[in-house]
Amino acid sequence: MEKLLDFLFISLLIVLAIILYRLLLRKLSKGKVDLDSFCTLYSLEKNPVSGEVEFYFVSPDMIKIEFSIWQDKEKVLELRNDYFKKGGHIIRFDSRTLSDGEYFFGLATSKQRTIKRFSIQNS
Question: Which of 32, 76, 95, 114 has a CA that sits 20 to 30 A from residue 15's CA?
Fold first, then answer.
């Protein structure tokens, strides 16, 4: 009889631990960001760049995206500001329109702003 009570007590502790663990997980996941609703911006294959460059990103849904180039914190060029369908997209850019130096490329939506660094070296 004593072994049965010990078994029931241990089983009760295990069930309570599982319930508390699930409650903790639920509480921690409340503020979790849904990464599937954000665009993914890929780095350039070659850096520094010269000539024509292809910027690639993936849109999770039909969304308005502003794709720009910055130098320091100043916007130098807005390449596109349009709605993009779900899926992968390539934006082509002729780097000869800008002088050699360090720049940032990136996209901005109503939910995010993502940027990456690159260098232009045409000379």
Answer: 32
